[in-house]
Structure formats: C-alpha cells, structure tokens
Write a structure and sequence with these properties.
The complex is a heterodimer.
Chain A lengths: L1 H8 L5 H8 L2 H16 L10 H5 L6 H24 L8 H15 L13 H20 L7 H21 L18 E2 L2 E2 L7 H22 L2 H11 L1 H6 L4 H27 L9 H14 L4 H18 L3 E2 L2 E2 L4 H15 L8 H14 L3
Antiparallel strand pairs in A: 1-2, 3-4
Chain B lengths: L8 H9 L26 E12 L2 E12 L3 E5 L6 H8 L7 E6 L2 E2 L5 H7 L1 E3 L12 H9 L7 H5 L3 H21 L14 H14 L4 E5 L7 H16 L3 E5 L3 H7 L2 E6 L2 E6 L1 H5 L2 H8 L7
Parallel strand pairs in B: 3-8, 3-9, 6-7, 7-8
Antiparallel strand pairs in B: 1-2, 1-4, 4-5, 9-10
Classes of the chains: A mainly alpha, B alpha/beta.
Subcellular location (chain A): Cell membrane
Organism (chain A): Paractinoplanes bogorensis
Protein name (chain A): Branched-chain amino acid ABC transporter permease
Chain lengths: 371, 298
Amino acid sequence: MTTTTEKATWRSSGGVRGWFGRQPGWVRGIIVLVSAILAFLLPYAAEVPLIGPQIVTEGIDWPSALFNMSYYVLLALGLNVVVGYAGLLDLGYVGFFAVGAYGTALLTSPDSVLYADTGWKWLMAVPVALALTMVAGLILGWPTLRLRGDYLAIVTLGFAEIIRIFATSTTTLRGDRGFASIPHPPGMWNGKPIFGVTDAVPYFWLGLVVIILVILGVRNLDRSRVGRSWLAIREDEEAAEIMGVRTIKYKLWAFAIGAFIGGLGGVLFAGEQGFINSQTFVLQFSILVLAGVVMGGSGNMAGAILGGALISYIPDRLRGISLGDTDLYEYRFALFGLVIIIIMVLRPQGLIPSRRRAMELKDREKEVAPQ
Amino acid sequence: MSEPHKETPEELDRANERPVDEAAPTGGAKLDEPNPSPVRGEEVLLEVDHVTLRFGGVVALNDVSFSLRKGEIFGLIGPNGAGKTTCFNAMTGVYRPTSGAIRFQGESVVGKKKHEITRGGIARTFQNVRLFPEMTALENVMVGADAHHKTSVISALFRLPRFWSEEKSGRARSIELLKFVGIVHRAGDVSRNLSYGEQRRLEIARALATNPTLLCLDEPAAGFNPAEKEELLQLIRKIRDTGVTVLLIEHDMRLVMGVTDRIVVLEFGKKIAEGTPAEVRDNPAVIAAYLGVPTDAA
C-alpha cells in the first residue's frame, strides 16, 4: 500500500513522460546518458547521412548556430524558473543577460575604465558578474513584490529598457561603441587555446556543460520545499502565505535564481563573441525567450529547453535559403511568428507541457467529449 | 463587499430544512446529539477582545468579544453577512482590525504576517476551496508541512542532510494526514481532479499539516449531503480528539448543535448570543435572527 502510494505521488501521467517515469532507474539513467552524449556530438550532425544535411544551418556556421542555441536554452531555463514555476510574468529578462555580459566586459575588456585596475581574465570575472546579476534580480524583485500578472509584466519591461538605455547613454558603458577584446575562456590544448576565434565547437560544449549543471540544480530545487513553494505561490499566493509559505522570500529567490541563470548566458555570450554593445540587448530578445518558454511548455524544463533551442534554431536555419529572388532570412520573424501561431493553435499547452498543464487540458477534453 | 459570501438564502434554507433522519448512517452519532469534549479545559487559547473592523462606512465587526478554550469545538454562527468570515480573516491576518485586540496563547496576532500566524499555530480552511489546483494532493499537504521546515535553498540545491530528513519526514507525515482524512488513494492526483468532498478533506489535511493548535474551518460542510455531513462531523471530532482546538463557522444549525461545545452567534457584525448549543438554541434573539422575526415581537 505504502509503496504504491509513494510511487504514485510524484509524477503520474500518460504519454512519453508517463512511460519514462515507469521505467526502472537504470533504464532512465541510460536514456539520459545517451541523450547527453548525443547532445555533445551535435556539432558533427552534418556527418549523418541523409538527415544530417537537412538539419545543419546553411547561412551560418553550424557550431556557431549550436552555441547560439545553447545560450538561448540557458535563458529559457532561467526564465522558466521565474515564469513557469513561480508564475511571475517577466518581460524584461534580457536585462539579466545584459548585466551578466556587461559585468564580464567591464572587468575584462581593455575598453573598460576598470581595465587598468583589474584586467582580469574571463574566468575571474565570471563569479563577480554572476553575483552582480543576482543583485540585479533582487533590485528588480524587491519593488515588484506586491505586483502580479500584467502589472508585473509592465514593470519588468521597463526594467529591461532602463538597462538598455543606461548602457546606451552612459559613457562608462560605451553605448554603441561597446566593449571589444573581451577575453575568451581559458584553457590550452596541444599548444593552442581551446577557445579560439574560428572554432565554435568548444564554446558549444562549454555551454552544454553549464546547461547540464543548471538542469541538475533547477531539478533539485523543483523537487523540494523550494519548488513546492514556488508552485503554491503561482497557484494561489494568498492561500500559500496562509499555509505558512514565506512568499516574499521565495519570490525573491525565484528572481535571483532566474537572474543568475540569465547572467550565466550573458557571461558565456560575452566570452564567445568578444564584443558587446547596447544594440545586443534589445527588448525583442526578452519576448523571443518568453515565446520559447511558452511554446516549449511553461513550467517544464524539457519544454523550456526545446523551446529555447527552437527560437534560436528556426531563424538560423532560414539563413541563406532563397525562394526565388528573396532570401528567406529577410522574412525570418514573419515565418517564425507563423510557426509559433501554428504550434500554439495545435498545442496550446506547449510542445512538451508540464505534467500539470497537460492534465488540465486533458480535463477540458473530457468536458467537451464525455466518455 | 465586506463579506465574500456566495450562498443564496435558498441554499441556507435548504441546508436547514433537511430532515435530520436522512443524515445519520448507521453507527454514527446523531447530528443533534450533544457531545461534550472530553479533553476540554478552562485554559483560554484565543481571545477576541472588543474587535471592530470597518471597511469605509461599513462596519463588518462591531465590538465583538469572545474567547476560545483549549481543546473545545467552538462554533461561530450567524446569518449571511453577519461577519463570520471577516472575523476569521482578522484572526488569520488577512484583515487588520480597526480597533480591539486578538490574542492567541496570550500573544497579539494583530499586525503579524499571515505566515507567521500560521507557524504560530492557527491554521484555516477556506469557504470557497482554495487548494493549489495543479499540484498533487500530496504536494498540497506537503506545502502545509513545509511551514515548520528549515530546508534552505542551498540545502535543497545541494541535497544536504537536512533536505533528506525533512523531505522524508514531511512526506511520511503528509501521507499519514491523507490517511487521517481518508483520501490517501488520491495522493498522486492533481487536486483539481479530486471530487468536491475530497477537495474539502484535502484542505483540512493541508491545514493540519501546519501542525496547528487551533484549526479554523470556514463552512466545511457547504454543499455536502447529509451522509457527507455526518462523516465530516466524525472527522471534526477525531481532530479534536488529537488535541487540536477547532473553530467552526457553519450555516447548518443541526451540524453546529451536534458537534460544538460552545457557540457565539453574530448578526450584522455584532455578537447577539453566546453559550452552549442548548442555551443558544432557545435564545429569542438567535431565533429572531435566523427566522427573521423582528426582535421586539419575539
């Protein structure tokens, strides 16, 4: 009795997830391991006969496209904590990405006023930049604690714009001129630096390692008191507080952890590109990541990962494809919008919905056609 | 505005007109059998001291005073809009009284945060069920159990020993509570898929998980049929027997009369009667309030 109850209590659902959940531990372990290895082999996807050439991007170097996907996935994972778990609609997520990237640039780029004092390597700048983004998360979180839904969305939108405009108009942050020569991540292999200028594969692998660590961390939080508190706040904030949840504390943690993950994306981005300016961090970016999270399945990590990868992959894949005289890349956002609309019409719960959303929508199905 | 009551007078009438014979299934105590609490003491647990609560020009509570003793089942009754739920909300920190004091175990709860009051030992359910609909029944209860846990974000992130021990004990306790209220077979289902009666029970389990000294039930029998009401009565007694003091808001007079030790009657935000069920039943002011007879004619 107890054992069946214990098993049933966590994830019980149908479909692929249900099947996955019913497999013994070792089967699940092997599946996860194989998927991770396959992810690491993605740069060589072009070598796969028949399918490979269809997958890889044409207008942009495939490993670079993969790296782009990796930081979009990171951003989607972070935003998923804020929006999907805690239910705090954040439209200014790019702000944290910017703080992470600018933090790195300020500490390491020769263009920075701090360079004479620090002149740090990329790795030394990382913890400082991440601490900075967490503080930025708290700065955004604190005044918005009483806000919900639409109101919160508007304030967060303003937050991202403040950061962008601040970066544009402050001389220290150099606006359009930006920061050049941001150092790459460290490491030597056969006498050559691992993280060079031409080959993006190591950056993708680095991104992948970071993603895996983030997945493990967020999963641990999700399956604990912290995750339960976030969900309770999302479902009914007042009831949660009356049940003893310290809502302020957990909302701030959601912002801080979301910001931290967004900042990770930012430091990776700065380390790969070597150059950032205020044009990099436009509002469109936040909307795109949010679209990815919702499209993939808000509140579910697998969904966020898929959504994040797609929002980066689809436009990149359209590069260099011509239809008659027009380059499809010109119409990437129009086509992309169309794809999102189609997905949301056919699968409103997202591509890989959270267990809970899936159940909710399944319920509605029953309402329509009772068995 | 002041009272989020949803029931129509018709519902109230229906609830009160139900013949009592229909109710009790075999074996259970009859609804209107008096049932004094064995563990009841004289120690005051909660004191509502001259509490007035105004919303603009509306006086929702007008100089209300009463006190709860440890171990009893206390009824708070009155017609729609009498201020019962407002009184509840003032106790649990949702509203702040305009004047007056509310003391729990000798300590003022006025101005405390809602989660502090909960951890202090007052748990409640809601008139309109307010579960976390997309979480499983077990997760709902575990949120309540988490109220006294100390697992931090860091210990959850790195799976430190405290996480494991609290997760294990919290889970075991939550399953026990689901058994206690009789819905353990639904532990793994998201709570929105539970039946209405199961949801009401789940709310009670979630409130009990916060380990309360005082459990406040806001119309737990609303929408129940007589058989379900009888089961609920037994559950309330069972809760009382574990040493938890119960404060019950209820419309159904028979249910209240059958289970409570003492009753306070509110009407238009004022206390109009206090006493044992028998005393209150014969009180002319109460009869007038419930039957709508003008007080001067009664």
